[in-house]
Amino acid sequence: MRILRFVGRRLLQLIPVLLGVVVLTFLLVRVLPGDPIRSILGPNATEADADAARARFGLDQPMWKQFLDYLGGLFTGDFGTSIQSGAPVTGEMALRLGPTLELVVIAVTIAVLLAIWLGIWSARRADRFGDHTVRIFALFGNSIPEFWLGLVLILVGYAALGWFPAPSGRVDPDADLTPLTGADLVDALITGNGPAISSAAAHLVLPVLTLVIGVLAPLLRSVRASALEVLRSEAYAAAAAHGLPERTLLRGYLRRATLVRLPSLAALVFGTALGSTVLVEYVYSWQGFGQWALRGLLYRDYPVVQASVLIIAFAYVLVFLIADVVHAWLDPRVKI
């Protein structure tokens, strides 16, 4: 019951946060240089054509009226109409968000599990060869650009070895996949389409691996540092001195105490990955949320930029809410 009250309070706090994001985004995108109408009409368009386009998208109205119209549309789930494509932003976003969420959720889940295992394993072998190897890998993951790593993995995994499909989409066209959620692997599993399952899984390997290597590094360093702190604590030394079994020490003391810091960092990494997958999506022709948002920014597509920023802000708040609940479950000292 206490957790439900905490979740309710945090959801109420979500309203002013998102309202602030809406206001700031609405104002900031209009400060950017460039005219979105001229960017889609081209240099040869007449002023009459530009005025007609502005009237069509409501850009000829005063800014306060544009904001009220936009805010009213949000309450009905209408994010507006894309200036670039002329299609509803809600429909475009629904098609693009699923593939990116699938990519990020799988990558972050794998990275968290690997970070827990490798971080604790490394801490228990501090200053030995295995520990140094893990630390070098974490440094490598922190330093390497994701777009360069993606190109290297394509060169090795596709061009040289031929183990993975070409980076030209998310599933083979002949897989006859029925789109439901936009996440191709999920759609294939729901419909029981065997060829689509294998195709979507094969297309996921390289982009997921690219994201995992980048996401794993900060998580791994955090878990290792927390595990070392627990191993050197008086409480752990006292438990070991009392002759507790190794399995009890690992599960009851080391692992649970080590994971206390992980939820907040994992939430931060998830939000960052959701907003920064654009380079990975471009390298692998993923056609996801990041590509869509960047294209909207380049073309000054106000509704697309506003919707993408709002979704990322909502994702941040939601994952941090989940992280706080998990943190309180792991650490009974935390009061919520």
Automatic annotation (TrEMBL):
Residue span, ABC transmembrane type-1 domain: 97-323
Protein name per UniProt: ABC transporter permease
Topology of this chain in the membrane: Multi-pass membrane protein
A Pfam family of this chain: BPD_transp_1
Domain of life according to the entry: Bacteria
Subcellular localization(s) per the UniProt record: Cell membrane
Record key words, sorted: Cell membrane, Membrane, Transmembrane, Transmembrane helix, Transport
Transmembrane parts of this sequence: 12-32, 103-123, 144-164, 200-220, 265-284, 304-330
Family according to the record: Belongs to the binding-protein-dependent transport system permease family.
